[in-house]
TrEMBL record:
GO terms for cellular component: cytosol. Substrate binds at residues 78, 99, 102, 153, 366. This is Glutamate dehydrogenase. One of its GO terms (molecular function) is glutamate dehydrogenase (NADP+) activity. Transmembrane segments: none annotated. It comes from Petrotoga halophila DSM 16923. InterPro entries: Aminoacid_DH-like_N_sf, Glu/Leu/Phe/Val/Trp_DH, Glu/Leu/Phe/Val/Trp_DH_C, Glu/Leu/Phe/Val/Trp_DH_dimer, Glu_DH, Glu_Leu_Phe_Val_DH, NAD(P)-bd_dom_sf, NAD_bind_Glu_DH.
Length: 434
């Protein structure tokens, strides 16, 4: 706390992991001797830089850019970029810390990082976004590379932004290094199924959890928060597997459509037009709108997928979900549930899937994109999707087994933290005190 004042989200993420791995750390004194915990909680490198840009009216703006290269024990740094006005070191560091563990769970050779800016893409023209991205990359380019650090998208950074960032990287370096960024357009080095991967992977993960209790998605009522990349493709896969998505949200409010949300309309509004979820009512007047996004958790459902942002489910929302008989809560966003909410789910026998395992399909598919880039190949949608499904199954079975080994059956939070920790910690010990 003294070292990292005011970084609430970072403290929250570190505390959750440290508490969870305590029994394991106590079993192996060598971790303490090697200073593993101290090293694991201190980023290897933190880069903070000025991002000046000019808007369409000729006014100068200055934003702050970040890249937190947290841990490279398992491979080059890898993690997304977030453009959102709430970005500050506490959020960047929590995301980079979590990414280290998530990447370990994918089984791919990737370390953990995160970056971004307090720039708000909302309401900006394409040219403004382009100029911002070019300015951002003009500093970032010297820190990244296929063998060093490979950024990707996150909140506010989608295909458009990755395109502008890649274009500027190529221009400055005079190299078409496809492996430097992931989430690229499929015609210029991107992977098919990357857009869908986080959402699809999340649903594949929950499918495995449901199988264990003899259940499927068929006929289930599902609530998904957000209406961005993760939310949309979670909803799409749920519907394909027979579930009914009855609510979605954005930062302004939520829509409830008991008949089942028409996803094509949402894609048209949010993905194609960058509009607001309230516009759904124009074409679906019988749906209900509420201007408090958090009210989405008051809707009775069998499965809840928080896919918007951190800390969107606190104890109050958790209690409501439990009282309404929720069966599964699976985190699509990073750290959307507070520790109190998670405790509430676990105490009430709600099956709970933690983000670092359940939403790892996106970064795992980014790693598949890197593999394709290094082989100068592009695989079919079906091939990537099949690999993604396998990866999610493996993550589920490995963290479940770890939980069982330590007599914590069904505690996937423990399973995910310990599986990932042991992998990263052992690699760090092999590589000496660095
Ligand atoms: P997007 O920018 O595509 O979408 C974010 C969505 O969440 C938007 O609909 C946004 O609404 C909504 N939102 C933001 N804040 C709130 C809020 N306070 N209340 C309700 N809705 C809100 O981002 P992604 O879908 O990519 O990311 C969502 C989450 O998933 C993040 O936590 C991210 O870190 C995580 N994640 C993403 C991965 C990926 O591959 N994209 C991989 C793994 C994790 P609005 O339109 O109003 O801004």
């Amino acid at each position: 706390v003294v070292k990292n004042p005011g970084e609430t989200e970072f403290h929250q993420a570190v505390r959750e992991v440290l508490e969870s791995i305590k029994p394991v750390v106590e079993l192996y004194p060598e971790f303490e001797k090697d200073g593993i915990l101290e090293r694991l909680t201190e980023p290897e490198r933190q880069i903070i830089f000025r991002v000046p840009w000019v808007d369409d009216q000729g006014n100068v703006h200055v934003n702050r850019g970040y890249r937190i290269e947290f841990n490279s024990a398992l491979g080059p740094y890898k993690g997304g970029l977030r453009f959102h006005p709430t970005v500050y070191p506490g959020i960047m560091k929590f995301l980079a810390f979590e990414q280290t563990f998530k990447n370990a769970l994918t089984g791919r050779p990737i370390g953990g990082a995160k970056g971004g800016s307090d720039f708000d893409p909302k309401g900006k023209s394409d040219s403004e976004v382009m100029r911002f991205c070019q300015s951002f990359m003009t500093e970032l380019y010297r820190h990244i590379g296929a063998q060093t650090d490979i950024p990707a998208g996150d909140i506010g950074v989608g295909n458009r932004e990755i395109g502008y960032l890649f274009g500027q990287y190529k221009r400055i370096t005079n190299r078409f290094e496809a492996g430097t960024l992931t989430g690229k357009g499929v015609d210029w080095g991107g992977s098919l199924a990357r857009t869908e991967a986080t959402g699809y992977g999340l649903v594949y993960f929950v499918e495995e959890m449901l199988k264990d209790v003899g259940e499927t998605f068929e006929g289930k009522k599902i609530v998904v928060s957000g209406s961005g990349n993760v939310a949309i493709y979670t909803a799409q896969k749920v519907v394909e597997l027979g579930g009914k998505v009855i609510a979605l949200s954005d930062s302004d409010g939520m829509v409830y459509d008991p008949e089942g949300i028409d996803l094509n309309s949402v894609i048209e509004i949010k993905e194609k037009r960058r509009g607001r979820i309230v516009e759904y009512l124009k074409t679906h007047p019988s749906a209900e709108y509420n201007d408090n996004s958090k009210n989405i958790w008051k809707i009775e459902c069998d499965i809840a997928f928080p896919c918007a942002t951190q800390n969107e489910i606190d104890i109050e929302e958790a209690k409501t979900l439990v009282n309404n008989g929720v069966l599964v809560v699976a985190e699509g966003a990073n750290m959307p549930c507070t520790p109190e909410a998670i405790e509430c789910f676990q105490k009430n026998n709600v099956m709970f899937a933690p983000a670092k395992a359940a939403n790892a399909g996106g970064v795992a598919t980014s790693a598949l994109e890197m593999t394709q880039n290094s082989m100068w190949e592009s695989w079919s949608f079906e091939e990537v999707d099949k690999k993604l499904r396998e990866i999610m199954k493996n993550i589920y079975s490995s963290i479940k087994t770890t939980a069982e080994e330590y007599k914590k059956d069904g505690d996937l939070v423990f399973g995910a933290n310990v599986t990932a920790f042991l992998k990263v910690a052992r690699a760090m010990m092999d590589q000496g005190i660095v």
